[in-house]
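Side project, low priority. Logging it here so it doesn't get lost.
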Amino acid sequence: MRYFTWNTAEPSPTPPSDLPLDPARRRLLATAPVGVLAAAAPLGNLAEAAAGQHDSEFLSFADEDARFKAHFRFERDLRDEGQALSWYHFTLFAMAPETRPVPVVRFEGMEYSYFRRLGRLTWRIHAHNLSFPRDLNTGEFTSTAKNPLTGETVAVSPMVL
C-alpha cells in the first residue's frame, strides 16, 4: 500500500512541538475508514476478507461479530434506527499513466445519514453528503483549482451526493 500526503508539503518526521503526539488516537484515526467498509460490506464478504482474524493492529475482538459491531458503532450506532451526522475531508488527486498521483483540491463536508436495522448485523443506510472545495495551499474555500498535469485553471464546484 502506498501513502500520499494530503498537501503539497513534505511530511515532517516529528510532530510540531505545540501538538502532543497521541499514537493510540493516530492509529484509531488511521483505521477509521475500515469502519466505513465494514458497515457497507455484506457480512459474508467482511468475514471472508478477514479470514478468521479478529484483531486489528491494536484492538482485539472476541469474534467477527464483535469486530463488525465495533466498527459499525464507531461509524453509526447499534440502535435499531437513528440518525448520524459526521464531518469529513478528502483530497482529489489527478492521475495520469506513468506518473504519481498529484493533489488538485481538498474537499471538506458533512454527511447526514438515517439508518435502520433490517436483520442480525444488517442495517440499511441512507445518507446525504455536501462537500465544499478548499485551496490546497491556503485552506480557503475556492471555486477554482490548478490542474497540475496541464497547468490550466479549472472550475471546481461543491459536491452533492
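Brief comment: Confidence is low (pLDDT under 50) at residues 1-22, 24-51.
Revisit when time allows.
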